[in-house]
Amino acid sequence: MSTRTMIPNGLAQRAEPETFRARSISASLAVKDLQKSLAWYRDKIGFFVGEKFEHKGKLNAVTLKAGDICILLSQDEGGTGWDRVKGAGFTLQLTTAQDIDGLAEAIRLRGGTLETEAGQKAGTRVLRLRDPDGFRIVISPAH
Asked: What is the pLDDT of residues 19-52, one digit of tens each?
């Protein structure tokens, strides 16, 4: 069993056996209308298509990339009902070295809508968006 000890600055110190270390994270979102979501992420936000996945000639998933970030969009087939709320309590938090206000303006110029204007959060400029299914996205500067 792993244990952690606190060091003077209040941060947890790794214990033995070594704790889990991840290298990256990717999101997988089941969406109601794959073509609509694909267009939003690609055409409004600026992601590019990595791979497309088809089954019997029908597009059923696509990977989208933006820098090191990868998001998989898959077509929700409604197996657990169409009325469930998507994105509740879930936010994709992305960081970038790009200018937040410049990104906001580019999204608006491509016809995208911001959930709120680029604003401050704890002294940092952030950009808030909501995709067609209600998934929230916050973009902030990389530190």
From this structure: 777 777 889 999 999 999 999 999 999 999 999 9
Q: Band of the pLDDT at 1, cuts 50, 70, 90? A: very low
Q: Which fold has domain 25-78+85-141?
A: 2,3-Dihydroxybiphenyl 1,2-Dioxygenase; domain 1 (3.10.180)
Strand stretches in 22-123, DSSP E: 27-31, 48-55, 58-66, 69-75, 91-96, 116-121
* 71, 92 contact by CB (below 8 A): yes
What single-letter amino acid sits at 31?
V
Residue 73 structure tokens: 């969009």
Q: What is the phi/psi pair of residue 44, to 5°?
A: -95, -45
Higher per-residue confidence, 143 vs 34: 34
Q: Where are the domains of the chain?
A: 25-78+85-141
Check: CB of residue 75 under 8 Å from CB of residue 121.
no
